[in-house]
Amino acid sequence: MCDNPMKPKAYKVIKIVKDTDIEWTFRIEMDNLPHAGQFYMLSLPRIGEMPISISGIGSNWIDMTIRSVGRVSDKVHDLRKGSTIFLRGPYGNGFSLSEFKQKHLVIVAGGSGVSPVKPIIDYCYNNYNDLNKLDLIFGFKGSASILFKNSLELWKGKFNTILTIDREEKGWSGNTGLVTKYVEKLKFIDKENVVVVLVGPSIMMSKTAEKFVECGIKENQILVSYERRMSCGIGKCGHCRINDNYVCLDGPVFRYDVSKKLID
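The structure corresponding to this sequence follows.
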């Protein structure tokens, strides 16, 4: 008898970090490590299920950064170290890290979109010689919503890192404005050698991709990751279908020249 692909497996929470008031990172023991950009379906018995991307990958663990915004996520925030959590996956195509070798990589992420790109940056941090260059642009609504502050300080020491919040705020002396404002500040020596990764709200990815195209970066050099409500994760329910594409199978990572043709 074949295993039921919809049956979740129990895993242990081994660490919890409170990144913001509503966004916590849960470290989970894992025997089946995913690729950066993939996601799991997380469930709690008698509560529900939701898709969650991976914000960290270790030798025998993964991190999931979860925002408390609904029934399931609220209950996840009631968990403590040693609690049991249920997962099935990983699903999706994810990012191919080998594609970034000896490239000028640019990562632009907005809000919770920083979570799925964090494993890429962690890899680049630990394998710096694999890259030609790495530029990071992160945008948050306000200073209280900034994720991974400790990691950000480390990344700033090695990579060109631009952090911005949407508007001026009392006590904030850093950058303000949308991420699109800072694309034109990047310097491209060899535009053919550039790969761009965009993760965030659809409108942010679309506008930012347009900025890169204006700078001379080709559409097929830009990768976007869709944050979309997925249910089955295996292409059966149709919740994530766009045209003939299923985000859970064909994505969530798409090249921009493909994704711009997808009509929701």
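The domain at 9-91 is CATH 2.40.30.10 (Elongation Factor Tu (Ef-tu); domain 3).
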